[in-house]
Structure formats: C-alpha cells, structure tokens
C-alpha cells in the first residue's frame, strides 16, 4: 500500500477518516507505522495529499492536505477476454496499477462458461480489487469496468464504435511487429483468452483495423 485511499463513507468529519479493517491492519502490522506519523492519502476519484496517523486504537487518519491531482490516465482502453477467476484478480490489480482507466472484459469461444459465475465478478469484489490497485499505484481515479458476456454483439456492434478515432492493437504471438510504447494517441488493446482467440468477426463488410503487436 503506497497510499491510503478513502471514500466518503469513511468520513468521520471534514478532517478525519476512519480506516477500514484491512487498511488499519496493513498500516499497523505491515508498515508498522507509529501514532503521529505522516502518511500519503487520497480521496476516491479526488485529490491526493497527506495525513497524520492517529494510532491503532483510533484506527483513523487526520487530513493535513488534499491538494495534489492524481496521475494522468493512460490513453488506453483494454479489451480482455475473461481469464480464470484467480488470474483475473491479479490481472485487474496490475492493470489498475499501470494507470489504465477503461477496462472491458468480454467472453470468447475459449472462455469457460463457469468463469462468469465466479464470486470474483461480484461488484463489491471487483471494486475492492480496483481500489487495491489504486493504493499500490498512488492513484485515486477508479477505472471504468464493463463486463460483456456475449462476444458476437460486442464485436459486431460495440467494438466498431469504440474504435472510432482510436488506434487498434491486437495482442498476437505470431508474425507480429513490436508493440508500440509510450503511446500518446487514444488506443484500444485487445487481448484474447488463455487458449488463444479463434473468431474475430466483422460487421457489414466493414473491417475493424486491429494492428497486431506482441
């Protein structure tokens, strides 16, 4: 945890925020912070700054400042075929830590149907994973996350609109060029399932340009 992230439900008053049980345990047992120490804090979808740790018994932090803007978001939308639930947790955490703010999780032919029934996909669990990623990244802006369990409508109707005015990138292991880095233009990166992608479709003969990259 590189920043303690609060939301409005944790506000005790204008100057003090209550720690969650997980935050309090991490600060006391992992970081081993002492009462009165300075700690970096942030307000969910708001500014960042510093606070004063009020100790284990109080399990709260007093705000000193919230005057720093969060990091600039990457100009990237990630389209990801749903991975195994345990892998999804780690993947979402890492994606969020990297600064991706638009995430679309879709179905595909090689995604097990049972994955869509996993408790990991419950709203509260997903929000917890995303918030943990923000706390690692020293960020406060919660990513937009969409779950789309039907592949064909997504590829035929939604993806063409998403690609308008953006650069399309398709992660592919064979006959690929080097993936561009340090992108400044709005882009979409599509990553297929663990077993490989088998069926990208086109609508009304209009090609969706997805340049292959490693």
TrEMBL record:
<keyword id="KW-0949">S-adenosyl-L-methionine</keyword>
<dbReference type="InterPro" id="IPR006700">
    <property type="entry name" value="RsmE"/>
</dbReference>
<keyword id="KW-0489">Methyltransferase</keyword>
<keyword id="KW-0963">Cytoplasm</keyword>
<keyword id="KW-0698">rRNA processing</keyword>
<dbReference type="GO" id="GO:0032259">
    <property type="term" value="P:methylation"/>
</dbReference>
<comment type="similarity">
    <text>Belongs to the RNA methyltransferase RsmE family.</text>
</comment>
<comment type="function">
    <text>Specifically methylates the N3 position of the uracil ring of uridine 1498 (m3U1498) in 16S rRNA. Acts on the fully assembled 30S ribosomal subunit.</text>
</comment>
<dbReference type="InterPro" id="IPR029028">
    <property type="entry name" value="Alpha/beta_knot_MTases"/>
</dbReference>
<feature type="domain" description="Ribosomal RNA small subunit methyltransferase E methyltransferase">
    <location>
        <begin position="72"/>
        <end position="196"/>
    </location>
</feature>
<dbReference type="InterPro" id="IPR046886">
    <property type="entry name" value="RsmE_MTase_dom"/>
</dbReference>
<dbReference type="InterPro" id="IPR029026">
    <property type="entry name" value="tRNA_m1G_MTases_N"/>
</dbReference>
<keyword id="KW-0808">Transferase</keyword>
<protein>
    <recommendedName>
        <fullName>Ribosomal RNA small subunit methyltransferase E</fullName>
        <ecNumber>2.1.1.193</ecNumber>
    </recommendedName>
</protein>
<dbReference type="GO" id="GO:0008168">
    <property type="term" value="F:methyltransferase activity"/>
</dbReference>
<dbReference type="Pfam" id="PF04452">
    <property type="entry name" value="Methyltrans_RNA"/>
</dbReference>
């Amino acid at each position: 945890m590189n920043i303690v992230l609060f939301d409005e439900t944790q506000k005790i008053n204008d100057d003090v925020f209550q720690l969650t049980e997980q935050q309090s345990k991490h600060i006391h047992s992992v970081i081993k912070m002492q009462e009165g120490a300075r700690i970096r804090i942030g307000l969910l979808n708001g500014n960042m700054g510093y606070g004063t740790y009020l100790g284990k018994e109080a399990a709260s932090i007093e705000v000193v400042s919230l005057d720093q803007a969060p990091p600039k978001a990457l100009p990237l939308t990630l389209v990801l075929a749903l991975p195994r639930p345990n892998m999804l947790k780690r993947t979402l955490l890492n994606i969020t830590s990297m600064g991706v703010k638009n995430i679309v999780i879709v179905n595909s032919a090689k995604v097990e149907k049972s994955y869509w029934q996993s408790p990991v996909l419950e709203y509260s669990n997903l929000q917890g994973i995303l918030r943990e990623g923000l706390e690692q990244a020293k960020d406060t802006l919660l990513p937009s996350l969409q779950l789309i369990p039907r592949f064909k409508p997504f590829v035929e109707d939604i993806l063409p609109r998403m690609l308008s005015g953006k650069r399309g990138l398709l992660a592919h292991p064979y006959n690929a060029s080097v993936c561009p880095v340090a992108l400044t233009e709005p882009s979409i990166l599509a990553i297929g399932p663990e077993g490989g992608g088998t069926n990208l479709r086109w609508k009304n003969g209009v090609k969706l340009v997805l340049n292959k990259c490693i």
